[in-house]
Amino acid sequence: MQGRASPDVPGIAAATVFAIASQIIGAAFLYLILRVDGGWQVVGLLALLGLGFYLLERLPWIADYALASFARVPLVAMITAAVIVLAFPFFVGSNTYILHLLIVAELYAVLALALNFQLGSANIPNFATGASYGIGAYVSALLAINFGVSFWLTLPVAALAATLFGFIIGIPSMRTRDTYLALVTIAFGVVVQQLLNNFSWTGGPNGLVGIPAPSLFGHSFADPLVIFGWKLPSQANFYYLSAALVVVAIVTAHRLHGSRIGLAWNALRADEIAAKAQGINVAWFKVLAFAVDAFLAAFAGTIYAFYVSYISPDNFTFLVSVTIMTMVIVGGMDNIFGVIVGAFLLTILPEKLRAFADYRLLFFGVVIIGFLMIRPQGLFPQRMRRYGGEP
Amino acid sequence: MSALLKVENLTMRFGGLVALNDVSLSIDKGAVLAVIGPNGAGKSTLFNVVTGVYRPTSGRVTFDGAEITDRPSYEVVDRGIARTFQSSRLFSDLSVLDNVIIGMHTRTRTGVLTALFRPGASRREMAACVEKAETLLKLGSGDLFEQRYRPAGTLAQADRRRLEIARALASQPKLLLLDEPSVGMDDMETDALVADITRLRVQNPALSVILIEHDMRVVEAFPQHVTCIDYGSKIAEGDFAAVRAEPRVQEAYLGKAVAHA
């Protein structure tokens, strides 16, 4: 089927232009929405975004064309993305508030990608991602404060501790399904938060204060970042660190999705009994999804703890888990790009709607429902695997 | 020659309901066994017990020299039993190709660490799976290969049955359990199905097939071994002519079915 040249397959030049231009437009849009303040400007940008999604829904060939272009020139697409991510803080400049928003959005993107292994790939409604996030944050913070362990060492330790937690909630959860499974994970999430609130060694409701900033090659992350004479605020350190973590999460998600494991998870999602009949060890693959979710969430937790240098149980409530779940559903289940867009949108939107004061949350809800009405399968729904075949 | 699959005195109770009552049967390597009986007789329950979906109340199942009673499904599939379902259970939101590749789950090995740190090995494994799956899709009747990128849920009924068989074959089974494969097929498609099964046996003479069927045209095509189940009990076995002649079978089942066929 290789020979059949359909008119939609873009040539190299067209694909290159498209891959670069579309990403720059996307970045410009993100920059604009981060910069604007007035309520009407935000509404205008949201309307523009809604129009974009409406066109995507109405004209499916746009998405096909975009994917074909990116597949045609993957290297160009990746380099463009890398340049945009690296250059973004230079445009933001000294606005630490925008940098802060970006860091939080990046961490949420990692959390949403983590949950996506369960909710998106395997349809396991896990409401305990917030708890894994918290365990990661607390383990690394406690190690750093009490034993002076370096940030870089706490990263893997916290991740392993949270993975263990993932196994612990995964195994009893295997006895339940659907709604009941959701209830079990809610209970776990609440229990973890209550424990953090009541133990004395976790600082109780006061949390942990004075988590030291990490350093790399003698450069403390609390200091401003100076690159080629450009001085970026200290948040830029964490911006790049979180961006690196997002890349790790994307690579992890991409590799698992494309392997036999991603297929087994998808099989579970579609029909558990049929999955069993194909020889899939259903219980093991569910537990595995819990473990991978916890592992990545703990990374995000560690970076968060060292970034804000102060954590308390309030940072890891049930509401956090619900937010992460909404990001996956709005962005698009089992679609890596969609999940990231969902995370950014749902992190930035509530902040930008501050102009609406008391009506902020109401408006937020209306916007999300509106987007879901335009794109019922999520902003970027899952795509079929192609295995290098025709697009 | 010892039997490939041996079911001994199998009883399955669901509360007060006896779905299978002291059923014994066996099938040799390379043979086809047709299991017939009215709706609700316990035929599908038999498949579910053999494949480890249900744990039998009592009785023994041995396959290929090992006892598999109470063993989990994934182990049963790994040992070489594949099945299809009466109401086809495809992974409807995945492509036709993906459905077949998932069928190879027990024949592939990539774990999380391999997938993450040796992506090349993982990719090569998938590429090999794609190639094998495409071969399997080309083999059967119908044009599944041309439809390989379609979501399985959008296939026509006959194609769904064919895809289920292709998916089951993907696990390279020694024993294939087909649960009413001809449901929803017209006469021509049923003939193609019989031809498919015949061809499979020629290509792989060691493959054994247990067939649950209502369509006597299919049973007639494989008449050597037929077992009839009614109300959970085996009421007849032998070749098709002998089973058909059995008064209890006619009373339970064939009387009506033959009149319609």
Question: What would a concise description of this structure say?
Answer:
The complex is a heterodimer of chains A (391) and B (261). Chain A is mostly helical.
Oligomer: heterodimer
CATH homologous superfamily descriptor of chain B: P-loop containing nucleotide triphosphate hydrolases
Global shape of chain B: globular
Number of strand segments of chain B: 10
Structural class of chain A: mainly alpha
Beta-strand content bin of chain A: under 5%
- CATH class of chain B, please? Alpha Beta
CATH architecture annotation name of the domain at 96-351 in chain A: Orthogonal Bundle
Q: Major sheet of chain A: order of its strands? A: 1-6
Q: What is the gyration radius of chain B calculated from CA atoms? A: 19 Å
CATH fold title of chain B? Rossmann fold
Structural notes for this entry:
Chain A has a domain at 96-351: Orthogonal Bundle (ABC transporter involved in vitamin B12 uptake, BtuC). With 391 residues, chain A is mostly helical. Chain A has helices spanning 12-35, 39-58, 60-72, 74-92, 96-122, 129-147, 151-173, 178-198, 235-258, 260-270, 272-277, 282-308, 318-331, 336-352, 360-374, and strands at 208-209, 215-216, 219-220, 225-227, 230-232, 310-311. Chain B has 261 residues and is of the alpha/beta class. Chain B is built from 10 helices and 10 strands. In chain B, the strands form 2 sheets. A 6-stranded mixed β-sheet of chain B has the order 6-7-8-3-9-10, sandwiched between helices. In chain B, strands 2-1-4-5 form a 4-stranded antiparallel β-sheet, covered by helices on one side. In chain B, α3 crosses α5 and α3 (96-103) runs parallel beside α6 (157-169). The radius of gyration of chain B is 19 Å and the shape is globular. The model of chain B has no long low-confidence stretch (mean pLDDT 91). The chains are: A mainly alpha (391), B alpha/beta (261).
List the helices and strands and how they pair.
The complex is a heterodimer of chains A (391) and B (261).
Chain A: H1 12-35, H2 39-58, H3 60-72, H4 74-92, H5 96-122, H6 129-147, H7 151-173, H8 178-198, E1 208-209, E2 215-216, E3 219-220, E4 225-227, E5 230-232, H9 235-258, H10 260-270, H11 272-277, H12 282-308, E6 310-311, H13 318-331, H14 336-352, H15 360-374
Antiparallel strand pairs in A: 1-6, 2-3, 4-5
Chain B: E1 5-14, E2 17-27, E3 32-36, H1 43-50, E4 58-63, E5 66-67, H2 73-79, E6 81-83, H3 96-103, H4 112-117, H5 119-139, H6 157-169, E7 175-179, H7 187-203, E8 208-212, H8 216-221, E9 225-230, E10 233-238, H9 240-245, H10 247-260
Parallel strand pairs in B: 3-8, 3-9, 6-7, 7-8
Antiparallel strand pairs in B: 1-2, 1-4, 4-5, 9-10
